[in-house]
Every structure is written in structure tokens, then in C-alpha cells.
Task: structure prediction
Amino acid sequence: MRELLEFLSLSNANVRYVVLGVMLLGASTAVVGTFTFLRKKSLVGDAVAHSVLPGICLAFIFSQVRHPLVLLSGAFISGWLSILSIDFITKQSRIKADAAIAIVLTVFFGVGIMLLSYIQSTGNAAQSGIDHFLFGQAAALVGNDVIMLAIVCAVLVVVVWLLFKEFSILSFDADYAQSLGLPVRSIEFVLSTLTVIAIAVGIQAVGVVLMAAMLITPAAAARYWTNRLSVMLLLAAMFGALSGFFGSYISYSAPKMPTGPWVIIAVTFIAFISMTFAPERGFFFKWLSKKRKVNTTMDENILKIFFHLGEKEGDALTSRKIAQLQARRYFEESKMQASLKRLCRDGKVEEDEHGWKLTKVGVIESKRIAKLHRLWEMYMSKFLKIPADHVHEGAESLEHFFTPELEEMLEQELDFPETDPHDKPIPYTKTSVS
Amino acid sequence: MIVQVENPVLEVHDLTVSYDKNPVLWNVDFSIPKGKLVGIIGPNGAGKSTMLKSVMGLVDKQSGYVKVFNKDLDEVREQISYVPQRESVDWDFPASVLDVVLMGRYGRRGLFKRITKEDKAIAMASLEKVNMQDYAKRQIAQLSGGQQQRVFIARSLAQQANLYLMDEPFAGVDASAESSILNLLQEMRAEEKTIMVVHHDLQSAYEYFDWVILLNMRLVASGPKEEVFTPELLQETYGGKLTLLDSLSNFIRQKEFPIKG
Amino acid sequence: MSYSFWIILTGALVASSCALLGCFLVLRKMSMIGDAISHAVLPGIVIAFLISGSRSSLPMLIGAALVGVFTTFLIEFISKKAKMQNDAAIGLVFTFLFAVGIIMLTLFADKMDLDADCVLHGEILFIPLDILTTGTFVDIVPRKIWILFIVFIIVIIALRIGYKGFLITTFDPSYAVSVGISAVLWHYVLMTLVSLVTVVSFESVGAILVVAFLVVPAASAYLLTDNLVRMLLIAVGVGVLSSILGYFLAKWLDSSIPGSMTATLGILFLISFLLAPKYGLLPRKLLRKKA
Result:
């Protein structure tokens, strides 16, 4: 606990650097990664992340220093080479993209492992840091590294901000971008370059093996919450920063632990939460709205029973017992009770000493459902050529799906017919007959 | 204009097919007589291929049923042969023409029994019927579009079925291949086989088929071509989409909202 | 038998099993699923190790192989039910499982002689030293080699028996279903085999070389032939050759054996990419010039 407080207070200058640095890394890779995600290049991102290893090792072997700028340029060069190799293999042979990605990923990484073991065998004192590029070690960052990384990250974010429009058009529809006369190839080049830089920077914190997740998982999580790209970028950046914060805390409190896996656990956790609870797209939300749909379908069916009984007897406002309703169409009593209570709460039915009866609102609503049922039957027999004895079942399910706009379309396309295919009158409510 | 027949080879009853709760075929209901060359005609996105796939059990039906020779599909699978669209496979696959045609025997022979001399003879005979016997050892990567199509048909012939469902066998083949495939289909019809063909070209349809099914998300017509090829029915099939049906479908489908900038 | 021989044999056995299955992965355009499985089995291996207290025991193999199948299942679930695009679903699932594995390794480092380094390099160097002590002829061959050999035989038998099933469901799955063959079933049979091979190979040669053996020999063979049986044989040949050459490369440069074997695979792929008679870059360029 004390440890956590000490960490959170950021009183130690080095902690401050590391935390801010890793959060910035997380945020900026997530921002750039959002485009990787949207362009469906997640696995290319994985390949590039693995492929920077030989570049880092070579840069180290030649320079013999662990200066971040030097290693970064090595990483940058081999990362770019891997993108070019994947393109070249898929364009110049019958090898498909998936295999090309896997080939480049493994071969580059294999060479990296060879170089790494060479560096280890030479026993250079400065080599200790190189291992950290495999699984990440945030705490190993020192003040100057962090400042430099922060500058690079800031540049990334600014470039994305400046080229926001171009990048988004490219990500959604490259052909369309081309037709607009945009320099697609140049934009693609800039975007790929940013991606490689983001990866080269990010591996300081999470390592090459898990870097792909740092790129795409925040974006994948953000996608569940919004349809707007700008919001998605902000969310992804937030998720990236949050998991970076978590990772650097682990790194601080348990120095033996590699940071990368913890950052990934955190960000994947956020993704699972998003998958489950995000409105519209989350599992939980979908489950809720499905349940709600079942309820409204039930309620509408009850209203329809009232309508049918009223239509037969010529009086829509009679009170009826549940048994009477069941006699017309059977549902379990408990379900009917629950449904009637919901309808009562919505002011569509009310209870009196003789049972349940429709309110004025309820009458209109019940007419609407019956009208939709009969209109849709009409539509099916007129436009879908479905025989009259087959239309009832289809209408039974679809009548519950009409929005006011669709309802209007249906009425207009059929031009307000008087009767349905079974010659029953169609009960228009006053508002719809103008 | 839907002509139902006695003792149909294929009976599709009240079939509704949905992807993600979004109906793409609505209450399709028709039957097909024996020994006819049947064309399924309709615009792009009318659900023609989906129809064949649902008959073969490749997509789930939401409602309705399909009977072949008055039985369920699984009881009579050996009697039916399906020819997928040519583009649905990767022709770079390392296999020879004969390898592919022999796959037509897998269903009957079972996967774990050896391919016999008889199977090979049947496969070669099928290749001869499509005039590809000289290509048996050829790798499929080296075939032209028309040749690929003929290999697919030979594979189907090797099944020795009685009902054939072919998805766009005339798509992307040259004129000579088209006429030789048509000849073959007519020979098959002469042997009392029933052949259902998804076809996109209205011009040639009248000439090619005996029986025509007009489809556009719903069944517009099914019957002898003379009765079905009327300007009204064709207009109804090709005269644009039913906008309401479209909007409703879109609404019901899980809303995969496009992202906005 | 010499030390070098056992190491090369280890590489060759892993290479052969992987290359055979890899051909089907490449033809199904599922190379990256192979990559995902070979990372994702790590937590399975660690858990099984913690439970059984030893490596390469039967429960360990089964447990870890189940994790492999679970991985493919989870990827399909997330992409279909949660509607995440397929590439992102693959990336998300395997990085997560791998991260869990690495954390478990670090947490229980004192309880097991398996560490993060082994994940990348495997323990190929120690394989010849791990000998069974039954007092019979079995002891001549290192324990791990026996296991790899058995798995190799399982792969051969499975492919021999299921050849037609794998062939038809790989080439044309919807046709296969139309004649009553379940494409889903064969998919999972293949995934189970890949998981099994991955698990036993993982410890010996590390995650990356497993992926490399799965994809690179198959892709090289794909450029060299148009016949599936020949493709399978060539892939095995490329795999075995690279483990022999890779071993000597490693010895010569005094570097990581799995790294060198992967690099050798890369060189062999490059050769077939450039020189393959029909599909190589140079022959095609020359042909075009002549024409």
C-alpha cells in the first residue's frame, strides 16, 4: 500500500519520468495503431514489431552504445524493410498475404535472436538493456531516454492531428481517396512511417513480442464505444495511457517483472470490458435490448388481443379478465400479468373491478399494431407474391419491427388500402389518415 | 405466376433465409418437374446463389423446408450434386485436374476407403463428357476460366446424381466454352437428369432453359419459360429493389454502423 | 550417438511435423492462426507444468493442446459474436494469452526450470542430456526425441488416413459440405494436430522457430510444385535441410540454434522465391523478356 502511495505521489523524479514516459508511449502508439486497426493491418503490425529486433541489435553492434536515438534508427530501418518485404513477396509471387506476413515475421525475428545471442556472448557491459526489448522493461528507462521518447511521441501525435482528414479517408476507402485525387501513395507512406516509428518507440515499454497488442487492442476496445473516428482516437489514447500507467506501476513495484505482459493484460482487460458493456455493441447491452424486445413484443401482442376482442364486439374499451384474454390467444398467466403491469405503467391499460381495460392511448397503440400486421400481410401478398394463407406467420414477427418512418413508408407504398388479404378492415388511427 | 407440379424433383416450401436476422429470401415457395433445364434468373443480390446454398444446407433456413425426391436432403444426398461458383476456390491450389474430379467420388466412397479403379474410370468418363480427358494430369493452376468450369462440372458428373445445382456455370467463360457446356447440359437433360442453373444473362436465358424461376429477394415467378417470360414479370423482377423491404432489412440487421470521420 | 546428431534430429523431427501441417495452414490461408496458436499455448504449458510437476508429461500435452484449440475457438467467437474484425481478433487473443504465460513464468520462476528465455530459444541444447533410465535400449535415445518421434508418427498417420478429408475441405469447403463432409470437424481436427505439435515443439525450439517451421517450408514448397503430395515432401525436405544447415551455421557463428535455423529457412525461402522454375521471380522475368 505504501508502495502504491509512493508511486502515485510521483515524488521520486525517476518514477515521474517513467510513468509519464510510458503513458505517453501507450497513448501515441494507440493513436497511430487506430489506423493500423482500421486498415485491417493488425497482423502486419505484429510482423513489423518482431522485425525491428535485428535492426536494434545491429545498431547496437555497430555503435556499441545504448543511445535510444541510435537504436531507434536501427529499428526504423528494419521495420520499414519488413513492410517492403511483405509487399514484395505478395506482389511478386503466388504467396498469399498471411504466409508472407508469417515468413517475414519469423525470419526477421530469427535473425534478431541470432544477433542477440551474439551480443550476449561478447559480454559487453552495456548489453544489459538490449534484453529488455524482448518483453519490455519500463523501469529501465532513465531521464534522458524518456525526454527523447516523449518528443518523438509528441511529433507522432501532431502529425496525426495535421493529417487527420487524409488518414481517415485512406483508412475507410483507399479507392475513394484515389478518385478524389489525393496522393494516396504518399499518405500511405507517411502513415506506414508513423507506424514503424510508433512501434520502434513502443517496444521500450512492452517489448517486440507483444507490441502488436499495444497498437491494435486499444483501438479495438475503443471501436465498441463510438462510431466517430475522432472520439475513437481519444478513447484509444486514453486506454493506451491507462494501461501504460498500470504497466509502469508493476515495473516499479516488482523490478524483476517484465512490463510488457502487464501492459497487455491491462489493455486486453479494457477490451473485454468494452466488448461486454459498451452500449449498442457490447454483449451485455445486446442481451438487455434483446430482453427489452421480447417484452415489447409481448406487450404488443397483448394490446392486439384487446383490439381483436374489441373489434369482434364493437367496443374497444370493455374491461376483460386475464382468462378472457387467454381464450383469444394463450400466453402463460405470469407472463401476461407482468406484461399488463408494464402496459399499466406506460398508461396503455388500466385495472378496474372487472379486470383490465385499454386507455385512450392504449386503443390507439393497439390499432397501430393491428394495422401494421394487416398492412404487412397486404405487402407480402402484393409485392412478395406470398399466398394469403401464408402471410400471417411472417406478419406476426415483423409487425414488431416497424419504426415510425418504416410505418409511413409501408402505408404510402400500399396507398392506404381498406382491407387486408383476408378482407379484414385495416384500422387506421386518425393521425395517419390525413 | 407460380406453377406447382405433381411429383416434383425439388420442392421448396415457404423458405425464408436470413443472414444475421436479416432476411435475404422471403417465403420462397416453388416446385420443379423432372428432366428439365431450369434457370434461376434475377438481378445482382437477388439471392440466387443463396437459394442454391440453402437447398444444399450450406446456409441455415429461418423457416420452411426443402424436399428432394420427396425426402429430406440427408437421405438423398447422393442424388444431388452441387457446383459452386468457380471463383469460390483458389485455383492456385496444388492439385491436378484428375485430383479435383475424383473429389466427386468422395461422397459416395466415404473418406476412408481407397479410391478404386472404378472411381478412376468414372472420373475419366466424366472428363471425357466435358471434353477435358487430355487434361487429366494437368495442374489446375494452368487452366483457363472455361476449362476450370468444365472441371467443376466433371467433378459433379462423377457424383452420378440425378439433380444438379449449378451456380453461375456460364460466368466468365468464352463463347465456345459456353456452347459446349450448354450442349452437355442438354445431353444430361436427355438422360432425364434435372439441372438447375443460376444465370445472370437475361438475353440467353430464354434460349437455354425450359423452366424459369424469377427471383428478387422473393419469388416473382416459376414455370415454363413461355409463361414466365412476360414483360410484366420481367419488369417486376428487374424493376429495382423494393425500397421498403430494403429499409426494413437494413433496420433489422445488426446495425454495424459505418464509422464517420 | 553424438551430441550434434541429437540436436539436428530434434530440429528435423520438429521441422517435419510442422512442415506437413503447415502446408495445409498455408493453403487454407491460416498461417497467422499457426502463429497465434504457437504463442497462445504458453499458459497451457505453464499450468500443466505446475500441476504435474514435470514437462512433456501426458497431462501437459493434453492440457496445452486444449489451450491451442481453445485459442482458435476464442478467436472465432470474438470475431463472430463480438463482431471484431478477424485480424484484430487474432492479434488480441494470442498476445493476451502469451502475456499471461510470460507473467506466470516469471511468478513461478523458482518452481520450474522453464523461463522466458526458453520461450524464445527453446531448450534444444539440453535435449541430448535428458536421457531415460529404464535400463533398456530405450535409454540410448534422449527422452524428448522419443516424444517428438511419436508425435511425428501421429501426424503421419493422421494425414495418411485423413488425406482426402483435409484435401477436400481445404480446396473447396462448401463443396465438401454439399457431399456431406463436415468442414468444421476437419478444421478442428487440423487445429488439434497443430496444437499438439506446437506444444511438444515449443519447449524444444521456442515459439518463433515453431511458427517458422509451420509456414516457411510450406511456402517454399508451394513455389516449387503444383502437386500436393510433392509439396508435403518438399516442405519436409526444406525443414530438415534447414535444421542441418542451421545447426552448423549456429556452431560456426556461435549463436542461437533456433535463430540460425530460422535464418536458414529464410535463405532457403529466398532461393525458391528467386529461382523456383515456374513460380520464381527470375525465371518469370526471363520468360517475359523472351516473349
Observations:
- The mean pLDDT of chain C is 88.
- Chain C has one domain: 3-207.
- The two ends of chain C are 55 Å apart (CA to CA).
- The CA atoms of residues 7 and 215 of chain C lie 21 Å apart.
